[in-house]
Amino acid sequence: MARFHPLTVTDIRRDTRDAVVLTLEPPADARDAFRFIQGQYLTFRRVFDGEELRRSYSICAGRGEGVLRVGIKRVEGGWFSGFANDDLKVGDVLDAMPPMGNFHAPIEPERRKRYLGFAGGSGITPLISIVKTVLAEEPLSSFTLVYANRSASAVMFREELEDLKSLHISRFNLVHILESEAPEIDLFSGRLDRAKCDALFDQWIDAAGADLAFICGPEPMMLAVAEALRARGVPDGRIKFELFASASPGKARKRETASGSASAGARAAVTVVMDGISKSFEMAKGGESVLEAAIASRIDAPFACKAGVCSTCRAKVVEGEVEMEANYALEDYEVKRGYVLTCQSRPLTDRLVIDYDQ
Ligand SMILES: Cc1cc2nc3c(=O)[nH]c(=O)nc-3n(C[C@H](O)[C@H](O)[C@H](O)COP(=O)(O)OP(=O)(O)OC[C@H]3O[C@@H](n4cnc5c(N)ncnc54)[C@H](O)[C@@H]3O)c2cc1C
Ligand code: FES
User: Fold this and answer.
1) Ligand 1 atom at minimal distance to the Cα of residue 101
2) Residue whose CA is closest, atom 4 of ligand 1?
3) Is 305 in the pocket of ligand 1 (CB under 6 A)?
4) Is the distance from the beta carbon of residue 312 to the nearest atom of ligand 1 less than 6 Å?
5) Residue 253: its pLDDT value, please?
6) CA 284 to chain centre
7) Which ligand neighbours the alpha carbon of 245 most closely?
8) Per residue in 252-275, pLDDT tens?
9) Considering every ligand atom, which ligand is closest to the CA of 103?
10) Is the CB of 73 within 6 Å of ligand 1?
11) 267 in ligand 2 pocket by Cβ < 6 Å?
């Protein structure tokens, strides 16, 4: 089971006025635990005003680069992103869980694949990790990255992206879309919405021929890009999403059952398996989530966003059934195999066994 480890901040680079890139070093005994797959994220914890907050940040290094790096963009009024941008110093130590997340696809060096990537704002962080890894490790594949920002000054990793372009001129196609500045060609200005995607797919990018598309950015952008891709015949199985935050909790796929929602008064006997140890407790069926009930029972269950977005709280239901309120993180095949987000799950059956180890 994932546990926190102390990572030393060895470098802080200011990338834009509102974003920093941190280089982190795990302790010697945890180096293996921090080997990552391109597109994964780290979850940090820190106490602010007496309250522990957990926040996830995607790794922005390629898998073969031999460094652990995250890019953090300031959210106005945000606790962790403000702290990282204003107060963090080289030599400080941050507690982080080992890399997690499913925003990746297998690297197949012998195959010739056509990748598409769509990033908005800080959504570039997992994408730059994926782009670098694909270009370095799949020599026959090509990557087209569409990167949307308000203005040129907000573009993260500007130099790194330009360097990648020069290094892989025939395999890496980078398209900047800027909202508040008007580049010479209309196609590259404005918002990355459905109409812009349609125009790009008509004039610049062959969407239908894509083997795989990765999308990470604000939710409306992600939905518009996915819709436009589907309209060009790209099936859902070839579109991968990473959402950083949802504006509308509860809107995603819900798992309904014949018995409907649980009544508030009924109770369930829950057993949680973690690190090979089983612990049991009782909880109200219609009240708090399985994760909250487990934490209240002093079980150190993993979590970060508590909003169904990050998948840190993923576990497998091995007996009984739950109702999941929101799911922005698990793929359909994971749900079919019995995996749930415990922060969004409430028991429907009198007995429930969930396993964090599987
Ligand atoms: C899987 C995953 C990967 C991610 N990767 C990245 C990444 O690579 N880079 C990145 O920059 N982000 C990333 N994020 C987003 C990141 O985890 C945080 O959500 C983000 O940095 C905001 O956290 P915060 O603590 O700064 O803001 P919070 O303190 O949580 O604030 C969130 C919002 O609430 C508002 N708010 C907070 N307090 C108040 C208040 N008192 N009054 C009014 N409004 C308030 C803020 O203005 C803000 O809009 C990722 C998220 C996920 C789930
Ligand atoms: S804690 Fe993020 S999905 Fe449950």
Assistant:
1) 1
2) 57
3) yes
4) no
5) 38
6) 31
7) 1
8) 334 333 344 445 579 999 999 999
9) 1
10) yes
11) no
Q: Ligand 2: distance of its center to the CA of 128 in Å?
A: 24
Residue at token pair 């920002």: 149
Q: Give the pair of three-digit tokens for residue 322.
A: 């739950």
Ligand 1 pocket member 80 (CB < 6 A) = yes
In the chain the domains, ranked by start, together with CATH numbers, are: 5-99 (2.40.30.10), 114-242 (3.40.50.80), 267-355 (3.10.20.30)
In the structure, what pLDDT confidence band is assigned to residue 286 with cuts at 50, 70 and 90? confident
Contact 115 CB / ligand 1 (< 6 Å): no
Rounded Cα–Cα distance for residues 20 and 13 (Å): 6
Residue 81 has pLDDT above 70, yes or no: yes
Atom of ligand 2 nearest to the CA of 341: 4
Of 102, 305, 339, the one to substitute when testing ligand 2's pocket (max ligand atoms within 8 A of C-beta) is 305
